[in-house]
Each structure stands twice: as C-alpha cells, then as structure tokens.
Amino acid sequence: MNNFTITGFADEISPNVSEQIRVLKQNDIRHIEVRGLDGKNVSELTLSEAREYKQQFEKAGIVVSSIGSPIGKIKLTDDFAEHLALFKHVLELAVIFESPYVRMFSFYTDDLAKADDYQNEVLERWQQFLEIAKEYPQITLLHENEKDIYGDTPERCLHLLQALNSPQVKAAFDPANFVQCDVEVFPHAYHLLKKHIAYMHIKDARYEDHRVTPAGKGDGQVQNVLEALVADGFSGFASLEPHLSIFDGFADLESGDSIASNEGDGAKLFTVASEALKTILVSEMEQEWK
C-alpha cells in the first residue's frame, strides 16, 4: 500500500535552495512544498525567478506538491484589494511551478473569542478567491487550520468549506495546529472534516505546553489520522512541516545512522521529522511511501 507521497517545507532545512534540494534527496523525498526560497517568500518571487527555480527543481528531479502561500494570513482590517492582487500573482506562480495546490488561510480577527461573528466576511473573501481561481481549474485551494485565524477550529473550517461547496476548495489538515488550539484531533476534528481533506501537514504537538514534536511524539493522534485516511480511501501528500527546535532526547536521535553529525540543525531536525513519519508509515502501518 502506498497511500502517501511524502513532501515537505524544505525552507525549514535552510533558506538556501541548493541545500533544501540536497537534504530532500538525502531523505529520498522527491517533492517540495514551496514556501521560502533563498530567503524570499514564494509570493514575492517574480515570474522570471519562479521559472528559474522550476528549472532547478526539474534538474534535481524535485516536483512541487503545493505552494505554501501566505494568502489569507492578514487581518480582516488590512487592505484586501492589495491582497487579492497578490493572490492572483500566487496563482500565476503555481502555474509556472505546475503545482496542483495552493495553501491558504482564513484571516486574523480582532477578537478571536468572537470569531463566529466574522464568518460572513470571511466567506465573502473566500468567494472572491474562488471566483478568480475558477480561471485556474487545475489548481485546488487548500484551507489550513492555522491557530489564531477564523478557521482554527474544525467547526469553523467545516462551515467555510460547506458554504463554499466547491471541489476546488479542500482542507489541509494539520494535527499540531488543532492541538495548539486545545482541540481533540481524533476522532473529533478528523470526523468533522474527513470528507474535505485533500492534503496532510505532518506536525505533532503536546496539549500541556503546545510544543511541537516529531510525528507520534505528541497528542495529535497522527497515526490514527493517517490510518483513518487509508481506511477512507485517501491517496495524496503528507507534507512535513517540522517546526522543530532542539528538544529533550534529540541527542539520542542525532547519534543514529540516519543523521550525519556534520549537518546543520535545520537538516538534522528535518531528518528527525522525516524518520518519525516513515516509522509510522512503514513500521506501524506497513505502507510503502512514495
């Protein structure tokens, strides 16, 4: 069984694209979720720069799984016309990168405790995104359940997805972000959103301190979610977004054969995250990941 294709936010390895590619290939990963390239956010690239990076990826045998855009990660009070123009530019970048997905968010509110009061405004803005995206039918918009935005709970994510009611808008499911919002990931969040999940972010965290951990080391029920996805017929990307810092027990992992001692911390931590996911997929779930 090979329900999952591993990809990842390689800018957590290093700002340098060549180093990102090297460590991805070292981990036998042939896909990338593009967010930061040589210290520049993907949304800031010119079309010419994007073409150059696309050629670099092609030469290395790396395929873009998604654009990790910052679209929707602004306040509702910020200038939306300017942001909408940036969204159009991101779609053009996605075409150049031949990316099937663009990751997005649902806006910061002034008072998160009253987030439900903003649902109509959030929906109206996403409807504008979708209207533009209809000109790019090959691209699916992914809403990520980021903490501190409107869609930080599964209930509000579900409302947005159901209200939009479009096959071109799906969920990027992030277990750690739900943990950091003190939400039960499995079964609660998963079962509410399972019909809409098209993409997984592999990140785990602990309820007690909200600290991010390798997959399976926190309270995000990552293995349960992945197993449920398989049972529900999922086939798609599992994207490593480690967000790790040096943690207790890291030295023991670092001494393992899979992590070279001369690597930088970003490369080491990305490899720890990669190995944790592969352990779940291969050892626990008997998956042959791609």
TrEMBL record:
Keywords: Isomerase
Keyword Isomerase: yes
UniProt keyword Heme, yes or no: no
UniProt xrefs under InterPro entries: IolE/XylAMocC-like, Xyl_isomerase-like_sf, Xyl_isomerase-like_TIM-brl
Top-level taxon of the source organism: Bacteria
This protein's name: Sugar phosphate isomerase/epimerase
Molecular function via GO: isomerase activity
Xylose isomerase-like TIM barrel domain residues: 24-243
Database matches in SUPFAM superfamilies: Xylose isomerase-like
